[in-house]
Structure formats: structure tokens, C-alpha cells
Write a structure and sequence with these properties.
By secondary structure, the protein is α+β, with helices and mostly antiparallel strands. Helices cover 47% and strands 19% of the residues. It has 24 helices and 18 strands. The C terminus is likely disordered.
Length: 636
């Protein structure tokens, strides 16, 4: 019995991949259920079951009353029998005694099979939910179990099943049963039938994880993925940047002869991948994002509302390449940069710029500065309309003309944007300091009105008050907000009592005293360093001072005493030391107190500095070289 039970028990553990305690708990619960059904015990009676995991013997304990004469064996026990397990028990007490029925093992095996299966199944689902919940967002391997037009079913670890809907598959991919597939674990949902695992190969994070696996620099943090734009199965754009100087982020991702990026391309069913270098300048970043097309100029239009539009001018032969098939290249570049991109050919942009210069008074300054280019641009546009060839010089003139007009417009837009930002900053300073920390729901407006206003992006009372100061008509233009609602809003703001900002804690007198002592110690240390440098000066320098003075003045200098020479040298060294010291912002009292260890109340011992004297023949001076022990560097 012992060997057979141990083999069966271990087989269940290996098959279900569950902890031993979980299986034992399920078996004990099943035995309790079997005992209740066997003896028809009440649900209010406490019943326990213990299983010996070595022999497989089952012992059942039931709650019974101690009596002199047993009327019902299910709920009563004799005093002599009870005292065998509880020596101090008395009549009328309730005790838990062994109540295992005869031949209970065979009966329990037949009765408790469904209960055991149900408990093990529940434990298996909980283990799967916990295991895959921690792997969300990572790549998992699976084997295709079923293929249908709407979904792909994969077998995963721990006997779990993952589902890959058609929308999460790469277009054009075809799988057969028993194929091994890599996919991103997109989401794990808890359902009555167990964890529902959603997989994806079309998500952009799948490409991100593949890059992390193939490129060690990304995994180690030397190269950072800034953004990804992807259209599965067709094309992707990845912007990367280096976090350490001397590393080529694009070359690290592509690999030698493209070996790294080609491995990812094969995994993504020959999907084209453009790796570009991220740039903090939006204009240069947008120009690179439109690669492989060449860009003539990028002109930005950023508004206070948050909308961002970039006008991109490209040569005429690069227009179709910049837009891409069905606008794919421009669409991916817009997703990658988070800018709305408007692409124009150079003749089209030149025609628009010429119309602005001739008809819009706002461009009078730019038109006057580019007056000599106007005839050349007009002639080039006329040739283009007639189908005649345009010379490279005329293309260059058109490019200069467009650049001058568009940059002038961009500068004016930036000036207006700066003025509006300054105006918003002035309005924000005039509002209560805590207005931007109070949610809009606390204003006390009607729920319907609060939902309408917050739906337009006004999440705090400060945002709403700022918009009322800048342009109240914008609030009035919200659907469902009329004059009566505006009156309610103004009345609620006027009656609202904003909390006072918390004052900054004042420094303690002890901290101030310790900070002052620290500053005085630094001054004393600087004076000691200067004195040591002066003492280290060689005496021959005094002899060289006289010829130097004669060379500068052209006259014979009067002899100076050694004390005067040392005083002058000390003054020069102190001046050089002050120049060498970087200017630092004044430290707060709290920072100085913390640096000096105010918790211990003791001054830190001065660490003896490493100094070496070295004579500089070029400048005819002796310098002190000190070593920074923290970094092992030298400071001159």
C-alpha cells in the first residue's frame, strides 16, 4: 500500500505541476466530503481528515458529545472512549475524536473522485493565473493545437491554452498544427473556466521584446528604444538613442552585415524595419523619420492647445517616396514622432510661399528680404507649368525662397506661443496656490455639469479658473453649458474656500549652529591648504623674480626681501585657488547640517588629503597635485 500510494501521489504531482500541500489539501477535503455522504453527517458538525503521505492511510476526526449511553454514533461518544484521546474530558463536553468508518478507503475512493478532481482543477487554474500573470508583456513559446479562421489556439506551459485572435496575427502568416510559435503574452483574464490568455504577434511590444532579445546593448541599457510605430506584416519604424557616449545605436541594432535585424525580420514574416536615431530636435527627428526620402526643410507649428503640425518640404522626385504606398511611410513617421505631418513638394511649397509673399501683409518683411529671388521663382514655376525642364540653380533658389518665408512664419508663431505661455504663467500666479491640486469634483457643481466640463480636459479647479480668465467663451461653447451654468460655475468658485499651502519648516537652532561651524571649518581648511602651497615654493624662484621684473619694465628692479616675495606668492596662489574653485549655489541649512552628520552631533574627522608637489618649467611655478580618493582621479 505504501509503495503504490507513493507512486500514484508523485505521478499526480508531476502531471499537475502543483505543490504537494495543494494536492494533500484537496485529498483531505475530498475525504471529508466522502465521510459526510457515507454517514449522512450534518453540515454543522465539524469533520477533519488527515492523510499519511507515506502510507496513504486516511483518518477521519468528527466533533461529538461525551455521553454515558450512546444513542447516535454520528454525534455521540462514550466517556471511556473519549478519555483515550482527551484524558481530562467530562460528560457533556464536545470533543473531536477519531471516527473513521470501516472499509472507508474503498468507499471514499469511489465517492470522492469528483471532489478531488474539482479541487485539483481549481488549484491548477489558480497556479496558472499566478504564473502567467507575472509574464504579461513578455514573449512566450507555444505549440499550435488548433487552427480556425477566427482564432489560433496554442498550448503553453503548465498545460495552459493561449488564444491568438485574427486581429493579433501578422497578415499573411499561416500556421499548421504542431508548429512552434513565439508570441507576446498580451493579457491574462480570469474567467469561470480558468485563465483566459490572449497572445499577440501584431503588437508593437512584440517587436520591442524581440529587439531586447537580439540586441545585447538594449537589454543592458546602453541603447534605449524611444518609440515604435508598426503596421504588422508590412513596415515598422524604430527610434533608438544611446545612453552612453561612443555607442552607435543604429549600428548596434542592425548588427554586422545586418545579422541582428535580419533575424527579427524573419521572425516577423519578412516585415521591413527602419531603425533611425532619435534626436531631441523635432525638426531633425521628423526628417529622419521620413527616411529613406530626402527632406529639404521641416517647419514646425506647435499650438498652446497641444496640437502639433509639421510642414515637410521634399524634392519633387522624393514626394512619392516620402508619402509611401497608400501613405504608409508618412503615417508611420507621424506615429513615431507624435506630430501631424503635412508633406509638400518643392514646387508646391514655392507656389504657396510666393502667394503668401505677394498677398499677405504679415510676410512683408520676408518678401522684402527675398525680393531678388521672386523673379527666379516665378520663372521656374512657369517652366514647371509648361513642362519644360528646371535647372538646378532654379531649384536651389526655390528652396531658399521657401525656407525664408516658412522660417519667418515659424518665428512669428513661436513668439505668439511664448506670449501666450507667459500670459498663462501670469494668470496661474494670480490664482490660489492650491487651486491646481483640488479636483474639479470638489467644486460642488451638478454631476451632469461636472461631467461635461471635466470631459473637455479640465480636471482641477485651477484649470477651470485659468480658462475663465483667458477665454470664458471657450467654456460657454461646451455642449450643454449655457449662461445659467456659467453663473453656477462662477458662484461655486467664488464661494469655494481653498486650503492654505503648508509653510516650509523653519530650521532648528542646533542645525543652524552646526551649519555655521561646518562653513568655518571649510574656510580654515582652505587657509591651511594655501599655507602648505606657499611653504612648498622653492627659494630659487625669488632669484628669478628680479630678472623677470627687469624684462617687463626695462629697468633694473630694486632687490626685494624674502618675506615680501613669499607674501606676494601667497597672494597669487590664493587668487588662483579662488579661480579654480567652481561657483556653487549656496547650500541650505538642512543640507549642510545633513552633510556634517547632525544626528550624531559630532564633527567628522578631517581626512588627510594626498598631495604631491611638481615643478612646471613652462610657467616657472610649483603646483600641487591632489588625488581624489573617491574616484581615483587627479585634480590640478
Amino acid at each position: 500500500m505504501k509503495k503504490e500510494f507513493a507512486l500514484a501521489f508523485n505521478e499526480v504531482l508531476d502531471d499537475k505541476q502543483l505543490p504537494k500541500e495543494v494536492i494533500v489539501e484537496a485529498l483531505e477535503a475530498a475525504m471529508v466530503s466522502a465521510y459526510r455522504k457515507t454517514v449522512n453527517a450534518s453540515a454543522a458538525q465539524e469533520v477533519l481528515a488527515k492523510i499519511d503521505d507515506e502510507t496513504g492511510d486516511v483518518i477521519v476526526y468528527a466533533e461529538k458529545e461525551v455521553v454515558e449511553d450512546v444513542q447516535d454514533e454520528r454525534t455521540e461518544v462514550l466517556l471511556d472512549v473519549a478519555r483515550k484521546e482527551h484524558p481530562k474530558v467530562e460528560l457533556g463536553e464536545i470533543v473531536i475524536v477519531e471516527s473513521t468508518p470501516e472499509d472507508f478507503g474503498r468507499v471514499a475512493a469511489q465517492t470522492a473522485r469528483q471532489v478531488i478532481q474539482q479541487r485539483i482543477r481549481e488549484a491548477e487554474r489558480d497556479a496558472q493565473m499566478e504564473y502567467f500573470g507575472h509574464q504579461a508583456g513578455e514573449i512566450v513559446n507555444g505549440i499550435v493545437q488548433a487552427v480556425n479562421p477566427h482564432m489560433l489556439t496554442l498550448g503553453l506551459d503548465r498545460k495552459a491554452e493561449g488564444k491568438m485572435p485574427r486581429s493579433q496575427q501578422i497578415p499573411g502568416e499561416r500556421f499548421r498544427v504542431h508548429d512552434r510559435v513565439r508570441a507576446l503574452l498580451l493579457e491574462v483574464k480570469d474567467s469561470p473556466r480558468g485563465p483566459e490568455i490572449i497572445l499577440s504577434r501584431a503588437h508593437r511590444d512584440f517587436l520591442r521584446r524581440l529587439l531586447e532579445d537580439e540586441v545585447p546593448e538594449i537589454y543592458q541599457g546602453l541603447v534605449e528604444i524611444r518609440s515604435i510605430a508598426r503596421e504588422p506584416g508590412y513596415r515598422s519604424k524604430v527610434a533608438v538613442s544611446a545612453t552612453q557616449a561612443g555607442i552607435d545605436p543604429v549600428g548596434a541594432c542592425v548588427g554586422v552585415r545586418g545579422v541582428r535585424i535580419q533575424a527579427i525580420v524573419r521572425e516577423l514574416h519578412e516585415e521591413k524595419i527602419d531603425v533611425i536615431e532619435w534626436n531631441p530636435d523635432p525638426a531633425q527627428f521628423i526628417a529622419k523619420a521620413l527616411s529613406p526620402a530626402r527632406v529639404t526643410g521641416v517647419y514646425l507649428d506647435e499650438r498652446i492647445s497641444g496640437s502639433k503640425t509639421a510642414t515637410v518640404v521634399v524634392p519633387e522626385d522624393q514626394l512619392s517616396l516620402a508619402i509611401g504606398r497608400d501613405g504608409q511611410n508618412a503615417r508611420l513617421a507621424a506615429k513615431l514622432t507624435s506630430w501631424r505631418i503635412d508633406i509638400k513638394s518643392l514646387p508646391e511649397a514655392a507656389s504657396d510661399a510666393l502667394h503668401k509673399a505677394q498677398n499677405d501683409e504679415a510676410f512683408a518683411t520676408e518678401a522684402a528680404a527675398l525680393e531678388d529671388l521672386v523673379p527666379i521663382v516665378e520663372a521656374a514655376l512657369a517652366k514647371k507649368a509648361e513642362g519644360r525642364p528646371v535647372t538646378p540653380e532654379e531649384y536651389t533658389a526655390m528652396s531658399r525662397f521657401v525656407d525664408g518665408i516658412e522660417k519667418g512664419a515659424q518665428e512669428r508663431r513661436e513668439e505668439i506661443l511664448d506670449e501666450r505661455r507667459q500670459q498663462r504663467a501670469e494668470v496661474a500666479d494670480a490664482l490660489p496656490a492650491t487651486a491646481f491640486d483640488v479636483p474639479l469634483e470638489e467644486l460642488g457643481l451638478a454631476p451632469s455639469l461636472s461631467i461635461k466640463v471635466s470631459g473637455e480636459g479640465y480636471s482641477t479647479i485651477g484649470d477651470l479658473m485659468m480658462q475663465l480668465e483667458l477665454d470664458a467663451d471657450k467654456i460657454l461653447s461646451i455642449s450643454g453649458v449655457g449662461p445659467k451654468a456659467m453663473e453656477d460655475i462662477e458662484a461655486a468658485i467664488a464661494a469655494f474656500d481653498f486650503p492654505e499651502p503648508e509653510p516650509d519648516p523653519e530650521p532648528e537652532p542646533e542645525a543652524v549652529a552646526e551649519a555655521e561651524a561646518a562653513i568655518s571649518d571649510e574656510v580654515e581648511e582652505a587657509e591651511e591648504d594655501a599655507a602648505e602651497e606657499v611653504a612648498a615654493q622653492p627659494e630659487p624662484q625669488a632669484e628669478q623674480a628680479q630678472p623677470q621684473a627687469e624684462a617687463e619694465t626695462g629697468e633694473e628692479a630694486e632687490p626685494q626681501s624674502v618675506e615680501a616675495i613669499f607674501a606676494q606668492t601667497e597672494k597669487e596662489l590664493l587668487g588662483k585657488q579662488r579661480k579654480r574653485r567652481p561657483k556653487q549655489a549656496p547650500a541650505s541649512v538642512e543640507d549642510l547640517a545633513e552633510a556634517e552628520g547632525q544626528d550624531t552631533g559630532k564633527k567628522k574627522k578631517k581626512k588627510k588629503k594626498h598631495r604631491e608637489l611638481e615643478y612646471d618649467p613652462d610657467h616657472d611655478v610649483t603646483v600641487v597635485r591632489r588625488r581624489r580618493d573617491d574616484w581615483g582621479e587627479e585634480d590640478w
